[in-house]
């Protein structure tokens, strides 16, 4: 089935499948890898989140889900529209804080997206 990636069943606190089957990838790696991926950036309308697909060097299929400024801004706007008290991101340390111009722009855009 297109765009379906099954996770191995890794029990985690009673759940049959969890993020314990995956791993965190730094945003800088995602931004570099997405352009050479099989799919390019795809968008899931239900999750309001981007993802992409690739095959590793042994031909295994992978799917990477992430947030970008657009998906973060949609979530921040939802929080604001519902009068909720705030929003945060999982790990700001995964952003690219190098002095490269593109990295600085991407990191700044992510932080700005948190304030609708």
UniProtKB/TrEMBL annotation:
Transmembrane segments: none annotated. GO terms for cellular component: extracellular space. Keywords: Glycosidase, Hydrolase. Gene3D superfamilies: 3.10.50.10, Glycosidases (3.20.20.80). It holds the Pfam family Glyco_hydro_18. One of its GO terms (molecular function) is chitinase activity. The keyword Hydrolase applies. PROSITE patterns: GH18_2. Residues 1-116 form the GH18 domain. This is DIAC acetylchitobiase. It comes from Illadopsis cleaveri (blackcap illadopsis). The lineage of its organism: Eukaryota, Metazoa, Chordata, Craniata, Vertebrata.
């Amino acid at each position: 089935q297109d765009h379906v990636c099954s996770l191995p069943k890794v029990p985690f606190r009673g759940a049959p499948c969890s993020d314990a089957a995956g791993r965190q990838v730094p945003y800088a790696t995602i931004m570099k890898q997405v352009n050479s991926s099989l799919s390019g950036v795809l968008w899931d309308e239900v999750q309001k989140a981007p993802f992409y697909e690739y095959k590793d060097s042994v031909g295994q299929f992978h799917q990477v889900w992430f947030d970008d400024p657009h998906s973060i801004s949609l979530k921040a706007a939802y929080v604001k529209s519902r009068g909720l008290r705030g929003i945060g991101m999982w790990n700001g340390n995964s952003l690219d804080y190098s002095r490269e111009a593109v990295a600085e722009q991407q990191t700044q855009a992510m932080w700005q997206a948190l304030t609708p």
